[in-house]
Amino acid sequence: MAEELVALSAAELSEKLQSKEVSSVEVTQAHLDRIAEVDSQVHAFLHVSADALKAAGEADGARKLGAKLNPLAGVPVAIKDVLCTSDMPSTAGSRILEGWIPPYDATVVARLRKARMVPIGKTNMDEFAMGSSTEHSAYGSTRNPWDFERIPGGSGGGSAAAVAAFEVPLALGSDTGGSIRQPAAVTGTVGMKPTYGGVSRYGAIALASSLDQIGPVARTVLDAALLHDVIGGHDPRDSTSLTEDWPSFAEAAKAGIAAGSLKGVRLGVVRELGGEGFQTGVSARFQEVIELASKAGAEIVEVSAPSFSYAIAAYYLILPAEASSNLAKFDSVRFGLRVNPPGGGTVEQVMAATREAGFGPEVKRRIILGTYALSAGYYDAYYGSAQKVRTLVQRDFASAFEKADLLISPSAPTTAFKFGEKLEDPLAMYLNDVATIPANLAGVPGLGLPMGLAAEDGLPAGLQLMAPARQDAKLYSVGATLETLLEANWGGSLLARSPMGKALRATESEKGAQS
């Protein structure tokens, strides 16, 4: 039974919970057992909740009393360690916050609890979300469930790996330049970066405030939509939160599944997000998706977004500038780590010693770069120029959406690379986000889903769909249709073909035969 439960999607678990075929305690225990079994290999979690079974029992109790519950009530969910949780440490993957337990929950976490979902633990990440491989975590790297010698993406590699390893059906991530979509691409999972302002950032430990966005990580488009319905909507505590009402994203995904056709949908292939620098196997899978979409009735048009070529350069000025400001609060005075120099020292000396010991190399690199970009005499030349490029990127999106309903591209230029392969070359690491960064600069939503295995290494390749701001529902509808068509070609879920998926099915079959 345990193997069957952890293999189910969140939507399938929801049906079993609502029909009382299983209890939340049983579902949660199955996932806790799975974490205990495999996380020593995956290292997706930094902390596992001691209160998960209690929360599950409360969900079961509410259901027995006949309370009207959210469809995901009783379903376990993991939380990226960038989000504040009042009952678990929140470290943002950094030694400078080691052991820190916030006095409050992030809004999205509070909404999980209100929906009677079961927070099961906190997932590993690159320190302060700075990275594309989860190799920059102060607590060790997370490993890709498809191949333990390879990275799971970043900065949210922990959330993606936990979902891909069947440790949890759902997780929360944050996406500043692709940190949900790029890990989804290399782990064969689904990840959504909502429209900027569509999900509250209150209680998210900030990296770059104008770019950060919280979103769902899942194994199916419908599961991501169900979680998005829980966490989305206006929050008066977030000054950037959009005030309008949102449609049900789950209903949009269900409509896409039922449609089975893309007739009337114009998909724009972005000329600048392909070609040189993209792995052959990734490009081949992408072309197959385009052909499949065309056969399903979609109109395929090519669009050009010339400013996308400058997006990475602009992003790596804007992000460090905002990060250097946001991380100034970690000063040894108010909370977190404090290191006293030998013989004592002034506040400034304690601050310097603390930041030297508490921050890792990548964080220091970006703080220095950001501080330089904001300094007198350089602000206009660097940060100001980058903001102008950002405006050009937004205009390119507007122009492209006049020709297409959605834009389509690979999520990442390559499959998962091996540990250490790009650590010594930060610029090569930064290029992993070439396809995802433009959506963050423009604030538009982006959905990542698997598009198959690259022929040369048998590892997952990811597909990205982007929509105009506030049209997240359209992404879920079209994404669910594409997912259904792709899985029909594969004969089932891509993750079922992963080493862990195969092992899980084999164990389930063995136990079934014994019984």
Topology record:
Blueprint lengths: L1 H6 L2 H9 L5 H19 L2 E4 L3 H13 L11 E5 L26 H8 L3 E6 L33 H8 L5 E5 L6 H7 L2 E4 L20 E5 L2 H11 L17 H11 L6 E5 L9 H16 L3 E5 L7 H16 L20 H12 L2 H14 L5 H24 L2 E5 L15 H5 L6 H6 L3 E8 L6 E7 L5 H19 L8 H16 L1
Parallel strand pairs: 2-3, 2-4, 7-8, 7-9
Antiparallel strand pairs: 1-3, 4-6, 5-6, 5-10, 9-11, 10-11
Helix pairs in contact: 3-4, 8-9, 9-17, 11-13, 11-14
Key attributes of the depicted protein:
515 residues, 43% helix, 11 strands, 11-stranded mixed beta sheet, globular, alpha/beta, Amidase signature (AS) enzymes, single chain
Provide an overview of this structure:
The chain is α/β, with parallel strands linked by helices. It folds into 2 domains: 2-310 and 389-514, Amidase signature (AS) enzymes, CATH 3.90.1300.10; 311-388, no CATH class. It is 43% helix and 11% strand. The chain contains 18 helices and 11 strands. An 11-stranded mixed beta sheet has the order 1-3-2-4-6-5-10-11-9-7-8, with helices on both faces. Helix 10 links the parallel strand 7 and strand 8. Helix 8 (221-231) packs antiparallel against helix 9 (249-259). The mean pLDDT is 96.
